[in-house]
Amino acid sequence: MLLLTLESSCDETAAAVVRDGRQVLSNVVASQVDVHARYGGVVPELASRKHLEAISVVVDQALEEAGVSLDQIEGIAVTRGPGLVGALLVGLSVAKAMAFARNLPLVGVHHIEGHILAPLLEQEIAFPYLALAVSGGHTHLYRVDGIGKYAILGRTVDDASGEAFDKVAKLLGLGYPGGIVIDRLAAEGNPKAIDFPRPMLHKKNLNFSFSGIKTAVLNYVKSQDGPVEGEHLKDLAASFQAAVVEVLVRKTLRAAGENDLQRIVVAGGVACNSGLRKEMIAECDKRGVQVFFPSPALCGDNAAMLGVAGNSYLEAGRRDPLDLNALASWPLDRVSG
Ligand code: KG4
Ligand code: ZN
């Protein structure tokens, strides 16, 4: 099946063409980062407006780059949630209009489901596997038994890991979004310079907490006589990142062990983090556990990632109605599969 996929849950307007839920023919992402950067975070109303401006251009570009016409598209998959409702509605409305006008089947896909299935666009991975979803809104561990079959094993009780990166970057005056900036600074700093807490590491459950690390960074910065800059800033970034990465890696490996899972997928924007990639690969190698990261273009928000679940659901005969609503929050274990 040749699918057109649309994503507009946050600050990226994205469209892709995916064949048979595996082959990415195009994957176009228009980022609004510059628009929101001056406000230090995503402004929902601005996000909706920018999606409206960009979506037709992005869809046309996705078709053009794939070398296909709209007549050849056989179905449409769109992010239904979770996300900003006004932003989601832009992609959803366009998807519904196209489905109606062209008499095409439509399916709404869960954003995080897209992320944790994204590596299947690049390689075969047998089910079941453990998925660590790390993004601006999520830090969750899921058992993935197949497409549409997810169980939540653990989750953050406060901030998501990407949110922690962004908040720490903001308090250090490094701009928005901050994950990538901290990643770059950390690469040149000493991760052992400052001993930040590793919250929840020794708790028996598989939950996470990141707001304490963020507060520890804030207290550290306030306790200094002058601004943290130069080598000192690099050491701080490296020490903060090391604390987040250690918790993510150790809890993920514990989850894999307790649930007897031999394969791990790490997905979402924070899966781009070089420290996380390095540590996770090293620790998985030691234990003989296979680990998969999507390539960077498939880690952050994109539409191609919706093609895996979208294709599977449409092939199985699912047809979502044209009055499908957007869902601001939507637990992944409640998707119908
Ligand atoms: O998946 P994503 O693009 O959007 C959401 O669904 O939230 O994730 C965005 C998050 C942001 O918090 C951003 O700072 C973080 O991913 N991020 C990173 C890196 N690249 C993006 N965090 C740490 N290191 C990175 N290299
Ligand atoms: Zn995302």
How would you portray this structure in words?
This protein is an alpha/beta fold and 337 residues long. The protein is 42% helix and 19% strand. The longest helix is centred in the C-terminal third of the chain and has 29 residues, at 230-258. Helix 4 crosses helix 11, helix 5 runs parallel beside helix 7 (211-223) and helix 8 (230-258) packs parallel to helix 9 (274-287). The protein starts with a strand and ends in a 22-residue tail after the last helix. The chain has two domains: 2-116 and 301-334, 2-Layer Sandwich (Nucleotidyltransferase, domain 5), CATH 3.30.420.40; 124-293, ATPase, nucleotide binding domain (Nucleotidyltransferase, domain 5). It has helices at residues 33-37, 44-66, 85-102, 111-117, 161-171, 179-186, 211-223, 230-258, 274-287, 296-299, 306-315; strands at residues 2-7, 12-19, 23-31, 75-81, 106-110, 129-134, 139-146, 149-155, 263-267, 290-292. It has a five-stranded mixed sheet, with helices on both faces. Strands 8-7-6-9-10 form a five-stranded mixed sheet, with helices on both faces. Bound molecules: 5'-O-[(R)-(carboxyoxy)(hydroxy)phosphoryl]adenosine (KG4) and zinc ion. Zinc ion binds next to helix 4.
